Amino acid sequence: MGDLVTERLVLHPMTVGEAERVVIGDPGGGARWAPGYPTDGDVSAARRFLGTCANTGDPQPFGNYEIRRREDGQAIGGLGFHGPADASGSVTIGYGLIPSARGKGYASEALRGLLLFARARGVTCVKGDADHDNIASQHVMMAVGMQAAGQDDRFRYFEIAWTDRHDGAY
């Protein structure tokens, strides 16, 4: 599985070794981490990824991706799938950036790239959520075409669904 490349970013499929380093906070192995990486969310996602790998095998291409800036190769966050598509073709995603990388359009760019990737692989619906007070994350999902799909006491839920064949755009 190769890297996904967008205009300014590289979405690098995380390996077991990379996830283990994120969990222990050791950038060894030549990793280039921007200051503040990994966040607690990155560590949590890496743990979930490692659990999936241990229980059912590597979920790639529906695993975790490290978000790296193309200009310097530094990891600034992560995004990925919470698992493979279900029987109806639906997946759930999550993402996050270090504080210094926020507000520059990186999250929208990364999520847009992941949506195109998912759609090209037959996914028919992508879901995500954000805490009620995480307005920035809600804006990211809306910026890439996801629509509000409900809420509960903690989260607002978003999704995008496709009923036609993928034509390279959404």
Automatic annotation (TrEMBL):
Residues 70-165 form the N-acetyltransferase domain. Pfam families: Acetyltransf_3. Transmembrane segments: none annotated. InterPro entries: Acyl_CoA_acyltransferase, GNAT_dom, Ribosomal_N-acetyltransferase. PROSITE patterns: GNAT. SUPFAM superfamilies: Acyl-CoA N-acyltransferases (Nat). This is GNAT family N-acetyltransferase. It comes from Streptomyces caledonius.
